[in-house]
């Protein structure tokens, strides 16, 4: 089944053929279809746009009220209802499914008109209450067939076919409702809605619907309470004809909780929320809110955009900040004098890739110290070593000494307090648990820099690339959603030689890992140099340490940076730090005095 909107869209895609079919005396002029009027005589007064975004829109310049879309043109030219026009259009378009049969359905049970009901007009009391106290217009009262019985207001719900579905009564002396029979799930107000209407207001109650109509907006309201959704099923087809449904619901908790469910079922793209200056339309009427204010509220009706859909324009401040602001590129910078453009940014994930034993853990540890020094709280999930072992390595780097004293070690551990946490599972930890603990550490302790060493120890089979990919995908979401950085150590594929720096295509596993990561490092240990050194020591030949670096850290990808430098580094034997020249001093991350002072 197709909605009117869909049928009209199909007509618009064939606007010229539709015009030729409906108005054979017309002709195409300057990109528009021109004809005398909806009666089809030759002429130029009625113009239909046949191409572009506005295709299908038409206007008769001799009678500016005559305008609309192609379905309306069809209905006017053929003198049929919109529903019949839609039926005919489907046949013309060769569309098998017929339009929704909204015009013929109603609730199956019709009730008999009870005795004693008279028109509201003939009851001074009811008429006065409606027009003077509630300020409902007499036209609306007549259109909606509002009646009176024993001094109470009679609110009949007629189906789209005019049959009486339900009758509700309202006392005029107190807010009390009763009905002719038990609650029926339908909408009140069809009698006030033209069969060609393409827009409708849905509101919470009958008096509201009458108020909306008094403002010039025909409206419907559920008969059995605003929070029951049963009416949707009964009236679903009847509502299909509306391209726009304005929801005028109370802003109280009950109203707000029902609204998303209504919108979801009626179609998010055609629903709009109206915010009124008072709690509902009848209150607006009573308070004297004029039609202009109501028109303005309708014009400003908000869409129910999914929370995930945001206009790019809303990001102006953040983008200006990225260009000009102080907080440009929040993240951890590299420990060396150059390459400051490489940043381990919040919201991103980086891979530290290397062959076994090439220093990934040492490098990730040093960068974690760098993060702590720059104020980040860090969690290390090392499945390679027992916590005491990797913390020992880290402490060596932090002190810049091969053998720090006991006091210094203890002082450094005091410094770790509130800065560093360990995920203690060694061996093969389950990926889910790692993420759970990371989430907890983030929420409970404000940790924003995470090291996972390494992917091979997260509980996946070596060749289960799909699960590895899903895990990295989840880490990527975690980093982005919580504005933190995750560094994941991964292995390089085994190759014949360890003599050259591997590229990002050498990362073990699926290529998706490097695609998903924001930054990828390839860490290479200069094994040939170590061999040369060994041979020199045997032969007694002098060996120049400065000539070649001990390691190269190559940034092979940095999605959000301009630089992808290679860092030539020397491995300082005492501290196990990577330094930028053979005679550079290792950096003391924790000064002894500073550590003691904390
Ligand atoms: N460039 C280097 N020169 C000398 N020794 C190094 C160098 N890089 C790392 N090492 C040493 O090599 C050993 C292995 O380092 P590390 O554990 O960091 O490697 P890894 O890449 O994490 O290994 P794995 O893949 O097995 O986890 C450590 O003892 C470390 O101190």
List keywords for this structure.
DNA Primase, Chain A, Dna Topoisomerase Vi A Subunit, Chain: A, domain 2, Twinkle-like, alpha/beta, 9-stranded mixed sheet, Rossmann fold, 598 residues, AAA family ATPase, binds adenosine-5'-triphosphate, 6-stranded mixed sheet
Which CATH class of the largest domain? Alpha Beta
Kindly state the mean pLDDT as a whole number?
Answer: 88
Biggest sheet strand line-up:
21-20-22-23-19-24-25-26-27
Largest sheet: 9 strands, mixed
Pairing-aware structural class of the strands and helices? alpha/beta
Gyration radius from CA atoms, angstroms: 37 Å
Heterogens: adenosine-5'-triphosphate
Helicity level: 25-40%
Indicate the CATH architecture of the largest domain. 3-Layer(aba) Sandwich
For the record, what is the CATH homologous superfamily label of the largest domain?
P-loop containing nucleotide triphosphate hydrolases
Low-confidence stretches: 101-106
- Give the CATH topology of the largest domain: Rossmann fold
Q: Return the domain count.
A: 3
Report how far the terminal alpha carbons are from each other.
Answer: 72 Å
Task: Count every beta strand, where a strand is a DSSP E run of 2 or more residues.
Answer: 27
Protein name: AAA family ATPase
InterPro entries: DNA_helicase_DnaB-like_C, P-loop_NTPase, TOPRIM_DnaG/twinkle, Twinkle-like
Pfam family, one: AAA_25
Organism: Spiribacter onubensis
């Amino acid at each position: 089944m197709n909605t009117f909107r869909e049928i009209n869209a199909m007509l618009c895609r064939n606007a010229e053929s539709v015009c030729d079919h409906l108005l054979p005396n017309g002709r195409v002029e300057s990109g528009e279809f021109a004809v005398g009027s909806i009666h089809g005589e030759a002429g130029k007064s009625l113009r239909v746009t046949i191409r572009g975004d506005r295709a299908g829109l038409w206007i008769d310049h001799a009678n500016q009220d005559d305008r609309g879309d192609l379905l309306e043109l069809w209905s006017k030219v053929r003198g049929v209802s919109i529903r019949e026009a839609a039926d005919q259009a489907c046949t013309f378009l060769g569309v098998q499914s017929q339009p929704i049969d909204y015009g013929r359905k109603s609730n199956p049970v019709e009730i008999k008109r009870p005795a004693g009901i008279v028109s509201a007009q003939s009851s001074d009391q009811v008429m006065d209450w409606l027009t003077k106290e509630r300020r409902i217009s007499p036209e609306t009262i007549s259109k909606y067939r509002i009646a009176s019985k024993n001094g109470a207001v009679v609110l009949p719900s007629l189906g789209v076919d005019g049959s009486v579905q339900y009758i509700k009564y309202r006392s005029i002396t107190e807010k009390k409702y009763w009905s002719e029979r038990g609650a029926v799930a339908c909408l009140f107000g069809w009698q006030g809605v033209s069969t060609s209407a393409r827009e409708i207001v849905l509101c919470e109650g009958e008096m509201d619907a009458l108020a909306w109509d008094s403002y010039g907006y025909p409206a419907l309201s559920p008969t059995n309470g605003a929070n029951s959704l049963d009416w949707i099923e009964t009236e679903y087809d009847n509502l299909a004809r509306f391209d726009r449904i304005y929801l005028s619901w109370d802003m109280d908790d009950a109203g707000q909780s029902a609204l998303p469910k209504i919108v979801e079922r009626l179609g998010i793209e055609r629903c709009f929320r109206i915010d009124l200056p008072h709690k509902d339309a009848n209150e607006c009427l009573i308070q004297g809110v004029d039609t202009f204010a109501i028109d303005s509220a309708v014009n400003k009706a908000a869409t129910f955009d999914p929370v995930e859909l945001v206009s790019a324009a809303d990001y102006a401040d953040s983008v200006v900040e990225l260009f000009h602001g102080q907080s440009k590129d929040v993240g951890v910078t590299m420990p060396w004098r150059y390459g400051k453009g490489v940043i381990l940014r919040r919201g991103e994930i980086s891979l530290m890739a290397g062959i076994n034993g090439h220093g990934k853990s040492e490098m990730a540890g040093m960068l974690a110290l760098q993060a702590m020094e720059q104020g980040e709280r860090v969690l290390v999930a090392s499945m390679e070593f027992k916590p005491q072992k990797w913390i020992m390595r880290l402490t060596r780097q932090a002190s810049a000494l091969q053998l720090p004293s006991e006091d210094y070690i203890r002082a450094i551990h005091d410094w770790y307090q509130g800065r560093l946490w360990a995920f203690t599972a060694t061996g093969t930890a389950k990926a889910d648990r790692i993420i759970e603990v990371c989430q907890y550490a983030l929420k409970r302790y404000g940790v924003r820099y995470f090291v996972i060493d390494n992917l091979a120890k997260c509980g996946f089979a070596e060749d289960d690339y799909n699960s590895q990919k899903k895990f990295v995908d989840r880490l990527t979401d975690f980093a982005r959603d919580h504005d933190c950085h995750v560094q994941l150590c991964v292995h390089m594929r085994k190759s014949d030689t360890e003599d050259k720096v591997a590229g990002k295509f050498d990362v073990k596993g699926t290529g998706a890992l490097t695609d998903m990561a924001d930054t990828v490092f390839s860490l290479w240990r200069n094994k040939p140099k170590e061999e040369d050194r060994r041979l020199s020591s045997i032969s007694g030949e002098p060996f120049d340490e400065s000539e070649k670096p001990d390691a190269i850290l190559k940034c092979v990808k940095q999605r959000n940076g301009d630089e992808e430098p290679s860092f030539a580094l020397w491995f300082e034997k005492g501290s196990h730090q990577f330094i930028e020249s053979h005679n550079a001093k290792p950096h003391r991350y924790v000064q002894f005095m500073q550590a003691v002072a904390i």
